[in-house]
Amino acid sequence: MKLQLSYPKKPLINKAIKITGSKSETNRSLLLQALFPNVNIENLSNSDDGAVMQKGLKTVSGEVDIHHAGTAMRFLTAYFASQEGKKVVLTGSKRMQERPIKVLVEALRELGAEIDYVKERGYPPIKITGKKLDKSKVSLPANISSQYISALLLIAPSLENGLEVELVGKITSVPYIKMTLALLEQIGVNTQFEGNTIKIDTKNQVEKTTLVVESDWSSASYFYSIVALCEVGTEIKLSSYKENSLQGDSVLEEIYRDFGVETSFSANEITIVKTAHPQLPTITYDLSNAPDIAQTMAVTCLGLGMGCHLTGLHTLPIKETDRLAALKTELTKLGAKVATDAESITIKPTKAITSGVAIDTYHDHRMAMAFAPLALRTTLVINDAMVVSKSYPDYWKDLGILGFVEEEL
Ligand SMILES: O=C(O)C1=C[C@@H](OP(=O)(O)O)[C@@H](O)[C@H](O)C1
Ligand SMILES: C=C(OP(=O)(O)O)C(=O)O
């Protein structure tokens, strides 16, 4: 479905949006619940990625198709590998079959797992024969995806002797590892993260515990972008959020101050307000701890006529699409001057945005969601708009609440 977006009205002040639960917290919590049935979960994500995780966890044998969900692919690999009696082929979309899984497979094999590649070595689909994993020490490269590490940590308390993980090289997406550890702690598992070593104690049973999933901060980023592109005084309330988030993307609160957006926290919601016009012609940020907001920030900068240099983006080429390449192509269509290398993107301040451009989304929810706020500046078309359901199925409905006009072409 193609959506033509425009914004004929003045920005509406004081709108409130309820955003679905974090997909990262959801998929971790679901795995913990499968291992420890005493775990109860509130505010689950209604995303496709959450749904495929739930369905996958119920499977005992046969094929499990997780579509585009990276977390489900990685977390379920570790889960099935450690479940005696379960035998599955874990597969995903065409793109998922291009996203590497070798580091995790090798780590699990080191622990005693039986996993075979069905097609190409190092990539899904994979055939997993669940086994009791009897080793308790493993080492793996940490600079490709933190999801491999989280996958091992999540199954760690169910192993007989717990697990000691040695992380080799520079650790990427660190907040996601800390989120995993925090959720383990919340269900009563002892964890320790010192230097390059993580230790997780074994746990037979957990007390009755409710994990309350905070709403998704990566999804909140699109509203930060909208407020940044609106006039001073524009205000949006988002729920349910908290000041001490487990999600690294909550760094938005700090970063968007550079775009003149202030955040305040009340009981369970945040209020984001445009308080000033941004002063800096160009911003520089290292996003190795928050890779999922790179597209949002790049588009905000374009919309504000600002330049940016975003670094630490070495993981972007192996996400839902090669996000550095996709950003460069789509921003260039809109009139921006863009340069990329293996781990960064640089955009020169751009005065005029080309109108009527159709943005290709490359099966990547964040391409659709990140470019949509530009409708505040110009009319644009989003191709394959329903791709947003990967993490935020209600996105278009929620933009409608804010006064965006969406016409199906
Ligand atoms: O663990 C997680 O929930 C995630 C980790 C990050 O991936 P990488 O560790 O591969 O950067 C992030 O991009 C992804 O959206 C979710
Ligand atoms: C990278 C992402 O997801 P995943 O790796 O879980 O597919 C994302 O949602 O931006």
Automatic annotation (TrEMBL):
GO terms, biological process: amino acid biosynthetic process; aromatic amino acid family biosynthetic process; chorismate biosynthetic process
Sorted keywords for this record are: Amino-acid biosynthesis, Aromatic amino acid biosynthesis, Cytoplasm, Transferase
Q: Which reaction does it catalyse?
A: 3-phosphoshikimate + phosphoenolpyruvate = 5-O-(1-carboxyvinyl)-3-phosphoshikimate + phosphate
Q: What is its EC number?
A: 2.5.1.19
From the Swiss-Prot or TrEMBL record, state where the protein is found. Cytoplasm
Q: Which residues form the Enolpyruvate transferase domain?
A: 64-399
* This protein's GO CC annotations: cytoplasm
A GO molecular-function term, please? 3-phosphoshikimate 1-carboxyvinyltransferase activity
Annotated binding of phosphoenolpyruvate, by residue: 23, 70, 99, 147, 323, 366, 390
Enzymatic class: transferase
Q: Which residues bind 3-phosphoshikimate?
A: 23-24, 28, 145-147, 173, 292, 319
Q: Where is the active site?
A: 292
**Annotated pathway:** Metabolic intermediate biosynthesis; chorismate biosynthesis; chorismate from D-erythrose 4-phosphate and phosphoenolpyruvate: step 6/7
Q: Does the keyword Protein transport apply?
A: no
State the family it belongs to: Belongs to the EPSP synthase family.
Tell me, in a sentence or two, what this protein's role is. Catalyzes the transfer of the enolpyruvyl moiety of phosphoenolpyruvate (PEP) to the 5-hydroxyl of shikimate-3-phosphate (S3P) to produce enolpyruvyl shikimate-3-phosphate and inorganic phosphate.
Q: Which PANTHER family match?
A: AROM/DEHYDROQUINATE SYNTHASE, PENTAFUNCTIONAL AROM POLYPEPTIDE
Q: Which HAMAP family match?
A: EPSP_synth (MF_00210)
Q: What is this protein called?
A: 3-phosphoshikimate 1-carboxyvinyltransferase
What does the record give as the organism's lineage? Bacteria, Pseudomonadati, Bacteroidota, Flavobacteriia, Flavobacteriales
